[in-house]
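#random but structural
TW: two for the price of one
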Amino acid sequence: MQMLYDPQNKTIQRCAQGMTLEGEGRGEVAAVIFRQAWDEATTDLEKFIAAHYVARHQPGVSGKLQWDKTALDHAQRVPDVQVKGAYPSLYLNIAKDYEDLQEFILARDNYETALFYTQFLNDDGYGGMIRAGIAAGIARTTNR
């Protein structure tokens, strides 16, 4: 299942610009653009998308976890079922944050939740990457 994004949406445009900057190795500038997207976001969909990218540029794991949770919180408020396709990635990010904080029970719980939502992923390269990340996380946190 693929989410529908409006390419005319300012938040989407800013996040796309930030992703281009990341690809060019200009992460600090990208972080500013993503924060602008967050500051300008008005809907839960926009806030979910912007928070997801803001999280990637936090200097510490605790800050990243806070933004990853913010992204998930806003995604859960979007009534469109297509947003559920983002849940595996969102829960994977939160699980990895907890793992990095050595909170292995919380990490494992979030990896398991991510696994549950893989039913909403497409069977493509992206879906395979997310599934592999979840499986690796579960393996790392088993018996810890």
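TW: number two ↓
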Amino acid sequence: MEHIDHILVVDDDHGIRTGVVDYLRKNGLRATAAAEGREMFAQLEASAFDLVVLDIMMPGEDGLALCRTLRAGKHKAIPVLLLTARDDETDRIIGLEMGADDYLTKPFSPRELLARIKAVIRRTRMLPPNLRITEATEMLAFGKWRLDTTARHLLDEEGTVISLSGAEYRLLRVFLDHPQRVLTRDQLLNLTQGRDAELFDRSIDLQVSRLRQRLQDDAKDQSYIKTVRSEGYVFSMPVTVAEGGA
């Protein structure tokens, strides 16, 4: 039986959520609505979903907080597309750092939303071959670090756990799956967020800087992530699969 993608639409605006649900259903998707966080989690427990469309501006627990909670729990693998009424770059960057996979600013056309949903789902499923293999291995080793791909955190030489945000984890995974290869900002944005560079050049630079801090990578020596002038970044450390996942 052919799989039909199931989308959860979370928005406190009745008109928007019902309109989006109706449009998605008319275009061949399954769609379910939720008005706020508690209803969202109840739906997630009741059914399997392929993507969550989540409004940022909601009363009570807002979409950014809900996204963070999603990424920290058992539903962390479900892609999230944020809706925001504010054309604010800071909001968008925070949303992506919370672990969102894409965003769309209100007002939006249902057709564009549908295209974004399909792109995020397609990108989520079209993992590089080596990414599929390493997910099963659970642990990747590089330099003095190991990355637990199940728990999504770093381990240092003593086994101390270093937590990563959703954005940090995705960026590190892209580097680990393309070691010793120069990646442009546009490629990094495409691989981590599914969008072209444009306004978000600075967000990638910021995320690389934060990831370097996590890896204790000196900005001058750059043992792990090297800046390639006028081109982008390269992860220079060899990456191996840790024996027995430990």
